[in-house]
Specification:
With 350 residues, the chain is an alpha/beta fold. It has 15 helices and 14 strands. Helices cover 39% and strands 17% of the residues. The radius of gyration is 21 Å and the shape is globular.
């Protein structure tokens, strides 16, 4: 339940997101964990998510719920919360409603570019990326700061005409995601993918590799049934969370990340924290996370990247992951916000 701002002097942040539980993805994990860290720092956080609204399933992604006609209710929720800063995390129905609310009241707000929608839509339809980028530019143009996870993504968006871009790195729970004995009794080496099983993740590029050992896919999504039929020798285990997920990561010999469209790839540092070297394409996300750290191998030939990753010392992967902390992520998020006096909400609504 949303709570109004108190008089304790701490910043009260309202975060509006169309992505929320029970979705299992990097956006939800980033927002939820950032919220936890902000509270640990003494700040207050109110999340406005689809759970507050009547929703319908998103076409082709039924686990994603889209809020129906959220404008009036989102205004009531934000008025009641009276935050000191508003962050709009996604470009869905709630994001657009919160954007209109802020513009109508003359309130500053920040946004984030979590998902490469132009590339995702192009992978699933014939919509030219240029059309979608125009819509994304329009959505983010009034933002006081567009938060992005990597320097590569910053450069890409600047080339597309985005302004006011601010860096916002990611973190990993190194106590949960840690090296531990393998729980899988499968032919080695075990090559593993963790994440959404969807066409934009390019999982087929991993599953078609001619490599010895066992391929394991941890996760669920709209492409899972098709891939299971096409690749019967691959082990699909479905979605896992918490300790169970960490145990799967730690059981792998190499983490294979075939996506070319992720903005960061939180799963990369989760795998590294478990002591698992990464094999990926040299694209934004892997380029920023792995770079020349020696914790993984990047190559346009994914099979060659896997072969090199198998030679990497697992301790190097773990050591690199320790550079990514959620506390640093939350502190950066705070610096990027554009605070205002809560009274501005009441004055604007009067």
């Amino acid at each position: 339940m949303l709570q109004p701002a108190g008089s304790d002097g701490n910043l009260h942040v309202a975060i509006v997101s169309d992505a929320w539980h029970p979705q299992v993805n990097g956006v939800v994990r980033t927002l939820a964990t950032t919220g936890d860290e902000l509270r640990a720092l003494g700040h207050r956080v109110s999340f406005i998510t689809p759970e507050h609204f009547r929703t319908i399933p998103c076409p082709t992604y039924p686990e994603i719920r889209l809020a129906l006609f959220p404008e009036r209710k989102i205004a009531r929720l934000l008025d009641a919360a009276a935050p000191c800063a508003i962050h709009i995390a996604t470009e869905g129905p709630l994001g657009h409603a919160a954007r209109r609310y802020c513009l109508n009241r003359g309130l500053p707000f920040t946004t984030a570019y979590h998902t490469k929608f132009p590339e995702y839509l192009a992978a699933r339809s014939r919509i030219p990326p240029a059309w979608t980028y125009a819509l994304m530019r329009r959505f983010h143009s009034p933002s006081s700061g567009v938060m992005v996870a990597t320097a590569s993504l910053r450069r890409e968006l600047e080339a597309q005409g985005f302004k006011n871009i601010r860096d916002w790195t990611r973190g990993v729970d190194v106590d949960l995601f840690r090296p531990q004995p393998s729980m899988l009794d499968l032919p080695r080496p075990i090559l593993m993918y963790v994440g959404r099983v969807a066409v934009e993740k390019n999982i087929g590029a991993f599953l078609t590799l001619d490599r010895p050992g066992t391929k394991v896919v941890v996760g669920d999504g709209p492409q899972r049934a098709e891939l299971q039929r096409t690749f019967p020798d691959v082990v699909f285990v479905g979605s896992r969370q918490g300790e169970a997920l960490a145990a799967y990561y730690a059981s792998a010999d190499v983490f294979v990340f075939p996506s070319r469209t992720d903005t960061f790839g939180l799963v990369l540092i989760e795998a590294l924290a478990c002591g698992v070297p990464v094999a990926a394409y040299p694209v934004p996300g892997p380029l920023d996370v792995i770079a020349d750290s020696g914790a993984g191998a990047l190559d346009e030939d994914l099979g060659r990247a896997v072969a090199r990753a198998l030679t990497i010392d697992r301790s190097a992967a773990r050591a690199h992951a320790l550079n990514f902390t959620w506390r640093r992520c939350a502190e950066t998020f705070l610096r990027n916000l554009q605070p205002f006096e809560p009274a501005q909400i009441y004055l604007a609504a009067a």
